[in-house]
Structure formats: structure tokens, C-alpha cells
């Protein structure tokens, strides 16, 4: 009998989908390289090696219906763990148990034959995943449509780009309706529109109760779509828990924040940006419902007529949550010259828990010329009382009336 358990923002089953108990995986690292046939014959018994433990003492239970993301620096064992879950490799220590059918998108082009067309490779890849032809036929066209390959579906895959490989591989894995979906970093190869399409399909799988394990270098995506996040470091579990908590700790340890970018002809320069609370104090942490003041200090090195100042707040996936400017708010600025301040006041912040990145800009009224654009160079965190979910809070009155 399934028992509901709360993980992250969703309630998932208490039934395990993947279980790792004391898992360890090691590889041999050979010290000497024999470059000639003579060296190989003379040294065939002398060649030394060291054992490299890619994973050590990993204990993990992924529950049915849960989405788990695995983050960590290069060489931390993320991809090795995914391959162990698929059964491609066997652990040297411990045990791995999976419950349900598995589809995996691992190495780029894994399971594809380069001399076969994309259409033929759909059949080949599906057979490797244990899908019978009669079960594949009803979803065959959906796989092709999702891949967006068009006429290239009948080309040999050896002529495909990296992005086309990803499109085809992900389309197959995502459409065969597995119980467990394992996805490696290859998603990063796709373009932005395809990544958005894949994330949308992952959301639909989550709603359908599927189990997903995602390996990614993008910790912010992991925080946005996962129920839990695991941080691997040198083959060991460094941290496992709430996405926001793990990702913040990971960012702090890696000292990584989006660097942002800036551009423009600098006829107007935004010299300083301040995020202030309702009392005018600088801060990077706000609570839902509190006021926020965004203050821009600018310098116009010459007279600039009819400029527009604006800002945007973005989530971890780079999607705009809110933005406005002086033109949209019908605040006319006939001209600027020298130094000045533009202040945007939000009386009550509507955003819920999360980190939000801030872009600010000065540009012409038609938006064709950017004087100075600082893109996602700043950030702030929001905490909320926990009464709502999603990105924004709204006024909501609830009335319950019995009938009859």
C-alpha cells in the first residue's frame, strides 16, 4: 500500500523506485603507457595502476514520483552514478535496486548507429530500451514531431549536429512512457527553445507520477524543478535535501553566481544600483509583502533627450517574473544631463520564496539604442510565510457554503 510522503513542494509515494545501499565504484588508473609493441611485451606484467574510487559509500532512496537532481563539480561521480542505475556498469561495493521500467539519456548518441537514418535509429534505440515494435508504432510520429528534425529524420545520424543528436535521443526517451527517466548533462547541448520544450515535458511527467533523476551542472535548474537535490563531491554525498538549501550551499562553496553582462553606448551610465527595504536600508533579503526600493544612480555625459529607465526581475531559469520602465508607467523624462537618481518603489513585494536576478537599463524610447544595460548583475532573495506556492502571491478569499 502506497503511503504519501512530502518531499519538497509535492507529495510523492513512499514506495522506492531506486535504492542505492553502500554503493562504491572504482576504476584502474594506469601509471605507465607502453607506446611500442616491444614495451608492451617487456612490461606486460610490470604495468602498475592505482585504484580511483569514483563513488564511495553512497546511500540513496529515490521514491516513486519524485524528481531528484544530482549536482557537483566535474569528476564528482554524477554520471557514474547514473550509469550504475541503468545497469550499464556494476558497482564494486554495495547494491542497486530499481523498481519499474527505465529510460536513460546518457552519452550523446548512445544507442545510435551512425550509418542508419534517424527514423531507423528510433527503432534501434527503442529495441535497446526493450520496447516492442507494436508498442512503438502508436508513438512513432509523436517522437518524430517532438524532435523537430523535419526532413533530417531520414538522414544518416552521422551527419547530425550535437543538438540534433540530443533532440532525437530525448524524444525517444521521453515518449516511451518509462516509470523511471534518467537524464544526463546532454540536455545542455540543445538550444533554448528545445530546453524549454524538454522542461515542459518533464513537468508533465512529474504530474503523471513518473520518477526522474537528472544530472546537471546547472544548479539553478535543479532547484527550480526538483523535489530534492543531491550534491556529490569527490564521489561522496556532500549534501542531500531541500533544493533551495542545497543549491545555496553549493553556490557558496563554489563561489559561483551569474556574472551577468553589460552593454550599451554609455551616453548614460548607471553608476550604482541599490536594493533597499522600506526603511531605506540596503539589503539582499526581503519577505513577501514587504516594500522594495530599487534605486539607480546614473550619469549622462552629455544631454540625452527622452530617455527611458527600467528594470526586470528574473527567476533562476532566466524567465522574467516582473518588469517595467518609465515609458510603460507613463513617466516622461524630457532630458537628462549630469548625475541623477531614478527610484522604483514596490509597496508590496508579490514574489514567493526564491532567488531573483535583477537587470536594469537606460535606453531610447523605441528601444533601438541601449545607453547602458546591466543584465542580471544583481540579485535578492525572498522568503514567504508559506501560505502559497508558485512564484507570486495574490489576494484570495475562500468561502465554503454547504448545499441543501
- Along the chain, the helix and strand elements come as EEEHEEHEEHHHEHEHEEHEEEEEEEEE
Placed side by side, the strands forming the largest sheet appear as 7-8-9-5-10-11
Q: How big a fraction of the residues is strand?
A: 35-45%
Radius of gyration: 26 Å
Main beta-sheet strand count, sense and barrel state: 6 strands, mixed
Domain count: the total is 2
Explain how this protein is built.
A hairpin with a 2-residue loop joins strand 1 and strand 2 (10-13). This protein has helices at residues 37-42, 78-86, 118-128, 133-147, 162-175, 192-207, 219-225, 243-254; strands at 4-7, 10-13, 16-30, 49-63, 67-71, 93-98, 102-105, 180-183, 211-215, 228-233, 236-241, 261-263, 268-276, 285-287, 292-305, 308-314, 320-325, 335-346, 354-363, 370-383. The chain folds into 2 domains: 4-254, P-loop containing nucleotide triphosphate hydrolases (Rossmann fold), CATH 3.40.50.300; 261-383, abc- transporter (atp binding component) like domain (Coagulation Factor XIII, Chain A, domain 1, Distorted Sandwich). It is built from 8 helices and 20 strands. The protein is an alpha/beta fold and 404 residues long. Helix 4 packs across helix 5 and helix 7 packs antiparallel against helix 8 (243-254). The two termini are 36 Å apart. The strands form 5 sheets. The chain has a 6-stranded mixed β-sheet, with helices on both faces. Strands 12, 14, 16, 17, 19 and 20 form a 6-stranded mixed β-sheet that branches. Strands 4-3-6 form a 3-stranded antiparallel β-sheet, with helices on one face. The mean pLDDT is 85. The radius of gyration is 26 Å and the shape is globular.
